[in-house]
Automatic annotation (TrEMBL):
InterPro entries: 23S_rRNA-intervening_sequence, 23S_rRNA_IVS_sf. Transmembrane segments: none annotated. SUPFAM superfamilies: IVS-encoded protein-like (SSF158446). This is Four helix bundle protein. It comes from the Bacteria.
Amino acid sequence: MSYHIYSFEKLEVYQLARKFKIDIKLMSQLFPKEERFDLISQINRASASISANLAEGSGRSSNFDQAHFTNMSYSTALETIDHLNTALDMKYINEEKYTELRIKLDAILNKLNSLYKYQINNKETLKKKV
């Protein structure tokens, strides 16, 4: 028996966000235990929202609705930057790890921005096709 691959799963930005979420989860496991309900929770939820919003938005019937969720994905990626800055400031991660994650996040942000522009400018929506 096989399963269906949804369109969002084929997006390179979704695949990158999915991997990034795991990178963050593995990194945050090294944070002090007292951060479990604060920074660990916040950074994991924010990074998970990047891919989750892409998935949720793909089910919307108009490009504007899809773009709204892509924008939310972009916003949570920016929120993740703030959490990474805190992790660096608190010396939970070193400069090398910070730079590695920021480069990955910048690539995701650039792709999200491109996807958003495409969704906003594309005149063919699912509603017109139905």
